[in-house]
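Researcher: We're teaching a course module on how sequence relates to structure. For the next exercise, students receive a sequence and then see the predicted structure as tokens, so they can try to spot secondary structure elements on their own. Here is the exercise chain.
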Amino acid sequence: MLPDSIVPVALAVDPDDALIAEIDAQAGVSMYQLHGSETPERVADIKARTGKRVMKAIKVSDASDFDAAEAYLDVADMLLFDAKPPAEMANALPGGNAVSFDWTLLAGRNWSLPWMLSGGLDPENVAEAIRVSGASAVDVSSGVENAPGVKDAGRIAAFLAAVKHVR
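Model: And here is the predicted structure for the students to work with:
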């Protein structure tokens, strides 16, 4: 029932084969977004097993973290650069921690795969994040919530408006 311009994505963290099979059987997704410690071999396996596109999240706190992306260039369909939570952050999640990284680290970088920016984005900073990083796509979760796990329609609208007006 979705228009072709909408790509249904399943976000998973270190999914086992049973979970992948369950998602594939029930969810009708076109892509997997992997946020765990999946190896390049596991990414290739999920892609082969499902026939679906795979996006691999790379956690970033400094420039050296981009080295990890190289291993996924031949197996993933897309990369997502997300903030690595600080070591001192209690109860950190694999993503959605409302933490950003220095977006200038992405400026001028070229990847052989399309990529997205994530991590700490919200209606107030997304335009600057796009301008600084050069991102052509962004991912948001906690930045449009008014409580953990509760999306706010007004914040979503403000986020979309901010993205729409980036020059």
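Model: If you want an answer key for the exercise: The chain has a mean pLDDT of 90. The radius of gyration is 16 Å.
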